[in-house]
Amino acid sequence: MRTITMIVVHCSANSEGSKLRCKDIDKIHRLRGWRNGCGYHYVIPVDGTVEAGRPEEMVGAHCANHNSHSIGVCYIGGLARDGKTPKDTRTMEQKLALRRLLEMLHKKYPKALIVGHNALSIKACPCFDAAKEYNDLQP
Fold first, then answer.
1. Is 106 a catalytic residue?
2. Between the chain's N and C termini, which has fewer beta carbons within 10 Å?
3. How far is CA 14 from CA 3, 52, 90, 116, 119, in A?
4. What does CATH list as the number for 6-137?
């Protein structure tokens, strides 16, 4: 079993209102040559459904230098309607689903820090301060 020290929150970098689903990300990642498909462990489309990507016991492909010890969670969106400007586009359904998922993962991995991808890389993703928003779930 892997030792999980971080839960990394991402956005898919798609325009606000995108209908992308986990199966679509899986297809995109396979087209890039990723044999294991979707690099995230969980994906949350705009309707708030939590869709499983890679099994948690498998190393993800979502955050360079941190995949081996993290769980990757991605909400669909993160860009304004222009498709360029970073923006927290989470719907109320996504916010609720993300909160519930992170609460569940926090119970399973109580010592894991919850961070945004932007805390580990020079990116806007997930377009909000995940550590601050989920401060109550930090170890």
1. no
2. N
3. 31, 19, 11, 17, 20
4. 3.40.80.10
